[in-house]
Amino acid sequence: MRSSVPSLVDLCVQLAIDNIRFLGDVGVTEFHLLDRILSHCTPDQLMHIENCTEDRDLSPVTDKLWKKFFKLQFGADSMNFVVEKMKQKNVNFSWRRLYKAKLQEREEATEKSLARIKKRYEEENAKKQSRQVQVCMKVPPSSKRSFYGGFSADSMYDTKSSLMKKARKEFVNCREVKNLASMKTMVHRNNRLV
Predict the structure, then answer these.
(1) Which of 48, 87, 117, 181 has a Cα at 20 to 30 A from 169?
(2) pLDDT in tens, 121-155
(3) Coiled-coil ranges per the record (predicted)?
């Protein structure tokens, strides 16, 4: 059996596919070749290539790719909904614009929900702070008199102090406080990333 030798065009297309992450302006490359090459792009790579290519509209090739990315990212139901809306209103938008708009809408919704969660945790934390037992550092004057059963005032305050220490220790080690602490660190981490 003889294997067929790939043509020079096929070799060039394969080389472009292998190095697609380095592509920028595609110049006057024919659409049928671009169709073979750009179908291997990620959304970011395709966006970069379209932004770098000047004075040429690549939408005849890229529009179907953006539609595919829209379907993969947001689901077939969302894509069908957009198609129906465009048919109802008798308008047509490029799938690249629709993809970018939907991506931005999703990011804004995520930011709003994070802000809402952060606000609720702050409100809950403030509520817990207001209900929290506060340590009083002022020691009442001691009395030399003994109480019934031989207890002095000093021994009574020592008992209260050890009870407070135990209560404080249990509070710090409870699951709810640990969950709040981990949530705060997650919110701070997310705020730093944004």
Answers:
(1) 117
(2) 999 998 888 887 777 777 767 665 555 555 555 55
(3) 100-127
Rounded to two decimals, the pTM is: 0.59
Could you tell me if residue 61 is inside a domain? Answer: yes
Q: How many CA atoms lie within 13 A of 174 on its CB side?
A: 9
How many other C-beta atoms lie within 10 A of the C-beta of residue 70?
A: 21
Locate all alpha helices (DSSP H) within 75-94, ordered by sequence: 76-89
Secondary structure class of 194 (helix, strand, coil): coil
From the number of C-beta atoms within 10 Å of its C-beta (0-12, 13-18, 19+), residue 139 rates as exposed
What total of structural domains would you count in the chain? 2
The pair of three-digit structure tokens given for residue 63, joined into one six-digit string: 């529009």
Phi-psi map region of 55: left, alpha, beta (phi>0 left; psi -120 to 50 alpha): left
Cβ proximity of 54 and 28 under 8 Å: no
Is 133 within a domain?
Answer: no
Domain containing 165: what range? Answer: 161-194
- Is 189 contained in some domain? yes
